[in-house]
Amino acid sequence: MLAFDFGMRRIGVAVGNTLTRIAHPLATLDAASVTAREAALGALVREWQPGQLVVGLPLHADGRPHTMTKRARAFAASLEARFSLPVRLVDERHTTEVARAELAAAGRGGRAARAARDEAAARIILQAWFDTGDDEHNDR
């Protein structure tokens, strides 16, 4: 499985499988153009050949949608259409803060940790899917 922490500039990516149910940070895509980002996504899907994708769904703390919610849903829909794979949406509230805290505790904070933070957030999103199961967090 591949999971994505979607952002307008960067996309964090994590990988895991349904046997071990353990997620690992993989990469952060920091592409200047949509074309470059789509090429990088295509390369990851070809390399890892996932059976399913997971996309973090950003929401306000109280669960209400906001601007990025709509964009993340559109990103998920485009992945599903492009790769003909099932895409699950997972509530990603507070994942960036948790990732930031984990990296700071490991001595990897500040500006230099931005890319690591995005892929760590993707790992948290995928691990949440593994830990709680598809139906509880699928917000489609």
Task: Describe the structure in your own words.
The chain has 140 residues and is an alpha/beta fold. It has five helices and five strands; from the N terminus they run βββαβαβααα. The chain has a single domain (2-137), classed as Nucleotidyltransferase, domain 5, CATH 3.30.420.140. α3 (95-105) packs across α4 (114-132). Strands 3-2-1-4-5 form a five-stranded mixed sheet, with helices on both faces. The longest helix has 19 residues, at 114-132.
Number of strands: 5
Classified by CATH, the class is: Alpha Beta
Please name the CATH architecture.
Answer: 2-Layer Sandwich
The whole-angstrom Rg is: 14 Å
Average predicted confidence as pLDDT: 86
- Tell me about the biggest sheet? 5 strands, mixed
Give the topology.
Layout: E1 2-5, E2 10-17, E3 22-30, H1 34-48, E4 53-57, H2 67-83, E5 87-91, H3 95-105, H4 114-132, H5 134-137
Brief characterization of the structure:
The chain has 140 residues and is an alpha/beta fold. Helices cover 47% and strands 22% of the residues.
List keywords for this structure.
single chain, about 140 residues, alpha/beta, Nucleotidyltransferase, domain 5, 5-stranded mixed β-sheet, 5 strands, globular, disordered C terminus
